[in-house]
Structures are given as C-alpha cells and as structure tokens.
Amino acid sequence: MTRIKCCGMTRVEDALFAAQRGADAIGVVLTARSKRKVSLAQAKTIVDAMPPFVSTVALCMDDEAEFVRAVIETVRPSLLQFHGAESDEWCAQFGQPYLKAIAMGEGASALPQLRAYPQAAGLLLDGHGLGEAGGSGKSFDWSLMPHDLRQPLILAGGLTSANVQAAIRIAKPWAVDVASGIESSPGIKDHGKMRDFIEAVRSAH
Ligand SMILES: O=C(O)c1ccccc1NCC(=O)[C@H](O)[C@H](O)COP(=O)(O)O
C-alpha cells in the first residue's frame, strides 16, 4: 500500500477532509518562502484537530534554528520536513524525526544527495529545482527513483489524480505527497480533487 501525505493545509476543514478520506499524513508549511504559509497558531489549530493515527508534518526551508524550535514547541508535529540546503547534522539537532526534500529538478545529478541524510526518517524526492520552494507542481523523471536506499522514499512534485497511478507503477515509492494537485488555488484544497487523488492511490494496487 502506498501512503499518502496531503500537504500545504491552511484550513482545518481541508485537513479533516483529507483525514476522513484516508490520508495518512497532512502537512503544514511554516516557511515564509511559501504561498501556503500558516502562522504557528494556525498550524497548531490544524494539527490539534487531527484524529489519532494521522501523522502531522511541519515544513521549514532554510529557517533559523530558533524558529524550528518554536515550531516544535508550539505545533508539536509528528515529523519535521526540511526543504532547503540544511545538512543532515543541522536537521538532526532538534532530536525529532525528520524528512529531507531532495530537488529532483536537477535530474540524475541530484541522486548523490540522497545519501547525504543518514539520520532522516525518510527522503522526499520533489520535482522542483535546487534552491526553489516546493509546492511547484513540477514533476520529474519517475524512473530515477532509486530502490537501494535504506530509508522510505516519498514521491512528490506535480502529482494529480490523473498521473499518480502511473507514478506509483514506475517509481514504486513508500508514499506520495501532493499539494497543488488537490487545490483550487494555493492553500485552498478542492475536496473533489482530494477525494479523487486518494481514491486513485488506493486503487493503484
Ligand atoms: O508547498 C509549498 O508551498 C512549499 C513551499 C516551500 C517549501 C516546501 C513546500 N511544499 C513542500 C511539499 O511537501 C509539497 O507537497 C511538494 O513540494 C509537492 O508539491 P506539488 O508539486 O504542488 O504537489
């Protein structure tokens, strides 16, 4: 079974809908680099509304360590996700499980990066270019997904209900992650698109 993370939640009702339809995780974006940025208080409200057994992921990108500590203390997410040029040691300093995003817009030349985060709980391969923010709607060559890594791999970037089954067939990821493919505008989730996406993933097997 492929797990599902619905990312870029800005409204409790959208996050609850995702959980009710069977998403395994929801994400809230805290970094100022995002069109989907929520405040610490908004993120806490969304995270607190989640039922048991739905993981919550807080996203940062090249933010100050002090800010990340405030996220941990206030939001209390299940996992952190780092999207910038942070090193493995930097991400691990918080003593929390974390996901590291790798910019696969660089193609095969990005693959060595996947071995640079031995302490990550998982690696999220995303379609955007190096230094760019996530949530771009850009996909990458799914056949580049490696199969010899110890950590679970999460496929992200430009996924929609129309292409996610092909993506799963080719990349065979542990999980898929989606933001823009389930939205009507940045941060505003379209419940019909969310339902179709989750159903497409569930019927991919
Ligand atoms: O979503 C954002 O706005 C964002 C901004 C800065 C860093 C990361 C961000 N999102 C990270 C995610 O995990 C997205 O879900 C992932 O990039 C996939 O996005 P999309 O291509 O729109 O499905």
Automatic annotation (TrEMBL):
Name the chain's protein: N-(5'-phosphoribosyl)anthranilate isomerase
Query: What InterPro entries does UniProt report for this protein, alphabetically?
Result: Aldolase_TIM (IPR013785), PRAI_dom (IPR001240), RibuloseP-bd_barrel (IPR011060), TrpF_fam (IPR044643)
Q: Which family does it belong to?
A: Belongs to the TrpF family.
Q: Name one Pfam family in it.
A: PRAI
**Which transformation does this protein catalyse, written as a reaction?**
N-(5-phospho-beta-D-ribosyl)anthranilate = 1-(2-carboxyphenylamino)-1-deoxy-D-ribulose 5-phosphate
| Record-linked Gene3D superfamilies | Aldolase class I
Q: Which residues form the N-(5'phosphoribosyl) anthranilate isomerase (PRAI) domain?
A: 5-199
One GO BP on record is: L-tryptophan biosynthetic process
Q: Does the keyword Amino-acid biosynthesis apply?
A: yes
The enzyme's first-digit EC class, named in words, is isomerase
Enzyme Commission code(s) on record: 5.3.1.24
Q: Does the keyword rRNA-binding apply?
A: no
Keyword entries, A-Z: Amino-acid biosynthesis, Aromatic amino acid biosynthesis, Isomerase, Tryptophan biosynthesis
Q: In which pathway does it act?
A: Amino-acid biosynthesis; L-tryptophan biosynthesis; L-tryptophan from chorismate: step 3/5
GO terms of molecular function = phosphoribosylanthranilate isomerase activity
